[in-house]
């Protein structure tokens, strides 16, 4: 569950919806969970408090509460670790390919530089011979 506090600070309903949608979309990306309920509340003005209390009373019994407390941080950490491990592996493969390209470029650079240097010397020798 996600609790958005200080929702009373947002004046326009459309802005509140934008914020809720932003949080929902990012929660899906980071937590890989589309079923998270989101509760916009204001503790100061008691907005959304009843809905949150009802959810906590009806949906979460003591066994589920304990399970969530123990599993949720580890599950989130595991999903984030897996996600970034894959990204790191992909980026490592790109770097390996880049290194191969760099070596090829360097090898060809010196080969063509040497050919250019020889060609330049031949031109100079030709000029000297004509003098």
Question: What would you say this structure looks like, in words?
Answer:
This protein is mainly alpha-helical. The protein has a domain at 1-59. 76% of the residues lie in helices and 5% in strands. It is built from three helices and two strands. It has helices at residues 13-31, 49-59, 62-130, and strands at residues 2-4, 38-40. It has a two-stranded parallel sheet with strand order 1-2. Helix 1 links the parallel strand 1 and strand 2 (38-40). It is elongated, with a radius of gyration of 32 Å. The mean pLDDT is 84.
Main features:
131 residues; two-stranded parallel ribbon; single chain; mainly alpha; elongated
Described by the principal axes of the CA atoms, the overall outline is elongated
> Unreliable segments (pLDDT under 50, ≥5 consecutive)?
none
Give the beta-strand count: 2
Q: What percentage of residues falls in helices of 4 or more residues?
A: over 70%
